[in-house]
């Protein structure tokens, strides 16, 4: 099992709005920009093969966005190259981190010095959510999917472990970057599930107002 001491102090960071990675979850990415192709090539030369996913924040008067203070590092666990030199990769979430400072250098991509302190549970076992009312949650989720004309494999959702279900939906559902950040920073699986429920309920209420329906 990994420990925080096993993780590097400096990692490449990939600021991508709305892209959320969580510990033990998997995030597929399409890499095609030259700077991120360079990042990927450098990543594959390291022992850890880590890339830090982090939400960017607009910086007034600058083309370079700031970085949110908390991100999540993923280990490159799968990749394939297309004929035109692009990559399809998969990152598997390892641990969240806190950005201490950006590191200046000669790489075309951004790097940061990070701290893993406070996220030790990310390196542990799968989390459970003892207070999870799955029946009520799936009912709410069904309303959300119906409002968005989405379909899913309900049998798989019913059988998925708590962490897999909550984290996968947190990553996949279409929320604003600041909402994704709130899901990332949730201190426990229970808190993330509560945040997710709040976001789904807010989206449903907003849809009802927009369609002229009654709000209860």
From TrEMBL:
It comes from the Bacteria. Gene3D superfamilies: LON domain-like. GO terms for biological process: proteolysis. Keywords: Hydrolase, Protease. GO terms for molecular function: peptidase activity. Residues 11-204 form the Lon N-terminal domain. InterPro entries: Lon_prtase_N, Lon_prtase_N_sf, PUA-like_sf. Transmembrane segments: none annotated. This is ATP-dependent protease. It comes from Rhodosalinus halophilus.
């Amino acid at each position: 099992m990994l420990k925080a001491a096993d993780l590097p102090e400096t990692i490449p960071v990939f600021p991508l709005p709305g892209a959320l990675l969580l510990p033990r979850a998997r995030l597929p990415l399409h890499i095609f920009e030259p700077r991120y192709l360079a990042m990927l090539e450098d990543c594959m030369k390291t022992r850890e093969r880590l890339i830090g996913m982090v939400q960017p924040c607009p910086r007034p008067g600058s083309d370079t966005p700031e970085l949110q203070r908390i991100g999540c590092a993923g280990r490159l666990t799968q990749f394939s190259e297309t004929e035109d030199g692009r990559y399809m990769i998969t990152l598997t979430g390892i641990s969240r981190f806190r950005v201490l400072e950006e590191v200046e250098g000669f790489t075309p991509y951004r790097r940061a010095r990070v701290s893993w302190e406070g996220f030790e549970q990310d390196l542990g076992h799968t989390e459970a959510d003892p207070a999870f009312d799955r029946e009520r949650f799936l009912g709410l989720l069904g309303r959300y999917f119906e409002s968005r004309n989405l379909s899913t494999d309900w049998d798989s959702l019913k059988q998925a472990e708590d962490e897999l279900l909550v984290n996968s939906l947190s990553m996949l559902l279409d929320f604003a970057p600041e909402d994704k950040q709130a899901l990332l920073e949730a201190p426990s699986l229970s808190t993330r599930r509560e945040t997710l429920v709040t976001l789904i309920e807010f989206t449903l209420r907003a849809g009802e107002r927009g369609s002229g329906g009654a709000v209860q």
